[in-house]
Amino acid sequence: MTTTLNVSQAVELWSVTKRYGTGERAVPALDLVTVAFAPASFTAVMGPSGSGKSTLLHCAAGLDRVTSGRVVIDGVDLASLKEKALTRLRRERVGFVFQSFNLVAALSAEQNVALPLRLAGRRPSRAQTLAALTEVGLADRASHRPSELSGGQQQRAAIARALVARPAVLFADEPTGALDNASSREVLRLLRAAVDRHAQTVVMVTHDPLAAAHADRVLFLADGHIVDELRDPGAGGHPAQQIAMRMAQLEVAHA
After folding, report:
1. Contact 42/232 with Cβ under 8 angstroms?
2. Is 234 helix (H, G, I), strand (E, B) or coil?
3. 21 — alpha (psi -120 to 50), left (phi > 0) or beta?
4. Interval 99-110: pLDDT, tens
5. Residue 241 CB burial class (10 angstroms; 0-12, 13-18, ≥19)
6. Per-residue DSSP letters for the chain?
7. Residue 232 zone, left/alpha/beta (φ > 0; ψ -120 to 50; rest)
8. Could you tell me what percent of the chain has a pLDDT over 70?
9. CATH number of 39-62+82-253
10. Domain-by-domain residue ranges, the chain?
11. What does the CA dihedral 33, 248, 97, 187 come to, rounded to 10 degrees?
């Protein structure tokens, strides 16, 4: 049975704990984390290596089951879903962008963009997929396969694929980690535009203060806890410097 709640947040985590392993050898990756991500918001998640930021993303996206606590996406409590229903929810309400692009090599850019809709049992029109590619500046590359695209173009195609179904939330895991500076700026501009133009919710894990500076809010994790938060980092000017300073303080405190 699916439990649907009143929708006021795109994603909510309530006292979420995630442990890997069992018994005395169990390793806590997240410890009683409570956080919400509002519709039409852009949140960056940062923290030292091993802080739990990727685990937070995987649990929030329903890729990993939590050890305890609750995760709610678009009003649906994930604990109420069996695996088949959870897979369907991820296809219909969640978009993903990863550092490694994860495009299907044998498919064209247009076919890659259409893929999540086809997997969800829909028949996307060519106009729909071309509109998604046009939005990321790849309409003239629709017939090209990933091997014929640059890294930046592949990531833009991955963004079009993630957004074509207008999901409740888009999760991005180090989306600029494999890109040069120019391509990184373009990818971040597209993510920011998705929030500002289409009221998309974006949650992005990153280690880069320049990338995090595009967000409305920056969450800082350490040892499986949210230990700091910076809202509207651009308000006082020099947002990347502010974020880098917070990260440096965090690393010293949790060294």
Report:
1. no
2. coil
3. left
4. 888 999 999 999
5. middle
6. ---B---SSSEEEEEEEEEESSGGG-EEEEEEEEEEE-TT-EEEEE-STTSSHHHHHHHHTTSS--SEEEEEETTEEGGG--HHHHHHHHHHHEEEEETT----TTS-HHHHHHHHHHHTT----HHHHHHHHHHTT-GGGTT--GGGS-HHHHHHHHHHHHHTT--SEEEEESTTTTS-HHHHHHHHHHHHHHHHHH---EEEE-S-HHHHTTSSEEEEEETTEEEEEEESTTTTS-HHHHHHHHHHHHHHHT-
7. left
8. 96
9. 3.40.50.300
10. 39-62+82-253
11. 140
Query: How many residues can be counted in the chain?
Result: 255
| Confidence bin at 116 (pLDDT 50/70/90) | confident
DSSP for 28-59, please give it.
Answer: EEEEEEEEEE-TT-EEEEE-STTSSHHHHHHH
CB atoms within 10 A of CB 207: 15
Alpha-carbon span 99 to 76, nearest angstrom: 28
What's the rounded Cα separation, in Å, for the pair 231 and 120?
A: 36
Q: Which pLDDT value is given to residue 178?
A: 87
Band of pLDDT at residue 120, cut at 50, 70 and 90: confident
Query: Residue 75 corresponds to which tokens in the numbers above?
Result: 């009003």
Residue among 130, 188, 122 at smallest CA distance from 160: 130
